[in-house]
Design a protein that fits this description.
- The protein is mainly alpha-helical and about 80 residues long.
- It has a domain of about 25 residues.
- About 60% of the residues lie in helices and about 0% in strands.
- The chain is built from three helices and no strands.
- The radius of gyration is 25 Å and the shape is elongated.
């Protein structure tokens, strides 16, 4: 069931949005609804991707051991990743 909400928006911005909505043959209401749906879907996809990555980390058999670059290696100025060469 759809619910109505009250939205406070600058009058100048509302005028511009109404023109944009008319150009797109839609309504301001539909534009807001679509934006909010995308916002929720993006957040959902982000959460799902994060959960998948955490699951991969937990299930991984990879072990970096105690390897860490030395201070000299860190501050040498030499590129450390092939993709930047």
């Amino acid at each position: 069931m759809a619910k109505n909400i009250t939205l406070a928006i600058d009058e100048d911005l509302l005028d511009k949005v109404r023109v944009l909505a008319a150009m797109r043959r839609t309504s301001v209401n539909e534009m807001v609804r679509t934006y909010l749906q995308r916002l929720v879907e993006d957040a959902k996809q982000h959460d799902e991707a994060r959960e998948e990555l955490l699951k991969l980390i937990d299930e991984s058999d990879a072990d970096m051991g105690d390897w860490r670059p030395s201070r000299e290696e860190t501050y040498s100025g030499e590129p450390r990743f092939d993709r930047w060469r």
